[in-house]
Amino acid sequence: MANSALLVMDIQRSVVELADDGSGYLPRLRRAIDAARAAGIPVVYVVMCLRPDDLEVSPRNKLVSAVARTGIFTEGTPAVEIPPEVAPQPGDVVVTKRRGSAFSGSDLDLVLRARDIDGLVLAGIATSGVVLSTVCQATDLDLRLTVLADGCLDLDPEVHRFLVEKLFPRQADVLSVADWAAAVAP
After folding, report:
1. Cα-to-chain-centroid distance, residue 178
2. Does pTM top 0.85 for this prediction?
3. What is the pLDDT of residue 2?
């Protein structure tokens, strides 16, 4: 896992409230975060924030326009805060994005290159949103990828299952949080 980082994506109050399925998601995610820190793997939080005036929201972007109308990603509101159970600690990086992928409208690529990171471990909500978009873009950037299957959630469990069982294995290693944590344990 040398030169890898754990990306914790879109784990924000509004998103967790919408998607949490009662399966113990935040404690499971916390296990992945703790395992990364113990192994010396950088933890990078990626949050979605849109300006209150919707300056960066194009009416041509159907998804972002719809999300902007809900207000769940409005910058400066409690809705975009990271839940305290999995909050960043000193030394963690927080990157703000303006679109679906962790790379779109953010300085994530710069952060990764500055640290010579060439592999990503992905966790986040939603599997069909930020995780899928980031897998596609990271693949095109020639990054090694691991997706934590139970470190991701989606509003549609069937879509989640399809992605982690059928699509992501073509581009990434797909592991459970427990298996990944065991593999990186010092």
Report:
1. 18
2. yes
3. 59
Task: Take residue 24 and report the two structure tokens written for it.
Answer: 């113990």
Amino acid at 107: D
The first and second tokens of residue 58, run together, are: 């194009």
Token pair 């809705």: residue: 79
Q: Evaluate if residue 1 carries a pLDDT over 60.
A: no
DSSP state for residue 83 in the 8-state scheme? P
Structure-token match 């699509």, residue found: 167
71, pLDDT greater than 80: no
Q: How many domains does the chain have?
A: 1
CA distances from 161 to 1, 77, 118, 124, 158 (A): 25, 32, 27, 14, 5
Find tokens 């030394």 and name the residue.
Answer: 91
Q: Which amino acid is at 113?
A: R
Environment class of 55 (CB within 10 Å of its CB; exposed 0-12, middle 13-18, buried 19+)? exposed
User: Where in the sequence is the domain holding 174, given as residue range(s)?
Assistant: 4-184
Per-residue tokens: 65: 């326009």
CATH of the domain at 135: 3.40.50.850
Q: Please tell me the distance from the alpha carbon of residue 182 to that of residue 148, in angstroms, as a whole number.
A: 13
Q: What is each CA distance from 147 to 119, 124, 131, in whole angstroms?
A: 11, 9, 8
